[in-house]
Write a structure and sequence with these properties.
Layout lengths: L26 H8 L3 H15 L4 E11 L28 H14 L3 E6 L6 H16 L3 E5 L7 H8 L3 E3 L6 H4 L8 H13 L3 E3 L2 E3 L5 H13 L6 E6 L16 H14 L4 E4 L8 H9 L4 E3 L12 H11 L2 E2 L1
The structure holds S-adenosylmethionine, 6-(5-methyl-2-OXO-imidazolidin-4-yl)-hexanoic acid (DTB) and iron/sulfur cluster.
Amino acid sequence: MNAIPQTQPALSAVPSDSAGSATKWTVAEVEALYNLPLMDLVWRAQQVHRQHFNANEIQRSTLLSVKTGGCSEDCGYCSQSARNKAELEREKLMPVEEVVAAAKKAKEKGASRFCMGAAWRGPKDKDLGPVLDMVKAVKALGLQTCVTLGMLKEGQAEQLAEAGLDYYNHNLDTAAEFYGQVITTHTQQDRIDTIGEVRKAGINVCSGGIVGMGESRKNRAALIAQLANLNPAPESVPINNLVAIPGTPMANAKGIDNFEFVRTVAAARITMPTSFVRLSAGREEMSEEMQALCFLAGANSMFYGDKLLTTGNPDVERDEVLFEKLGLQPI
Ligand code: SAM
Ligand code: DTB
Ligand code: SF4
């Protein structure tokens, strides 16, 4: 029998100063990854993934919106912006006991991390106290803790660190060049500054973005390069596929092709080899096969639980079936 020739992926896309301590990626280098044939791109992502992780393991985080709606910001994708017209019941900050009850359930169902989200531009000092109590109580259950509260003022990250916070989620969301078309009430630099505060306090950074908002491939590559060039790169990188919510300016966004989403996951994996890449919003609309492709491309984390913040997520039973079919184990 003839040996089947093994084609090697073109290795033109390598980071420009990979000999340096922090690997820097140019936008062109990340675009070159996107331009690889899909099989070669996924093969490369798999190789990188397996150097640093067990490819059969998936980390699971459960989300809870602890303060819903009425946000002052104008993020075009978000149901929780007071400026958007999405149908949503505003809710005050949840009592700590209710948060703890939800965290207990999440732990019983197999989540390892509990992420509490608040629809704020940033927390007022009076709001931070109850959130610190939530962090302490959830941590006491033996769960990793994560919060996403918007922009932090000096000193707030330290208070969160003292309460035992493990992760702070704050996404760069989209490329600097596209940011102003999605959000005008704060800048991407504001977000970078908050990530700096989080780092300074010694909390792990969870930062990623959203695709499918009408951005170009170059914009997507620029976002990935920017995340990878944060020094160090975020420990956790959520890749959200836009959930087009009626009443938001993005309600009729065209979205991106599934394979373009897979390419984005692969580019994140290759450029951030030791980070957890999270298959985030948009999973409810994805087939089992599409999700498996994302795992093959290096995604090794997901939101687990019937709800994201205000929109749906595959229910836990459906996810268990998928894990079983794919032989995936929780971390
Ligand atoms: N207010 C805080 C903030 O903006 O960081 C925390 C909550 S905010 C809803 C968290 C993240 O969810 C956003 O940065 C965005 O990446 C993601 N997100 C929000 N709405 C989304 C949607 N419709 N589709 C996909 N991702 C979304
Ligand atoms: C992240 O990157 N995605 C999560 C979490 N971090 C907070 C939120 C997704 C929200 C999707 C739309 C919604 O449910 O409102
Ligand atoms: Fe507010 Fe965050 Fe939604 Fe923007 S993404 S409107 S900051 S809750």
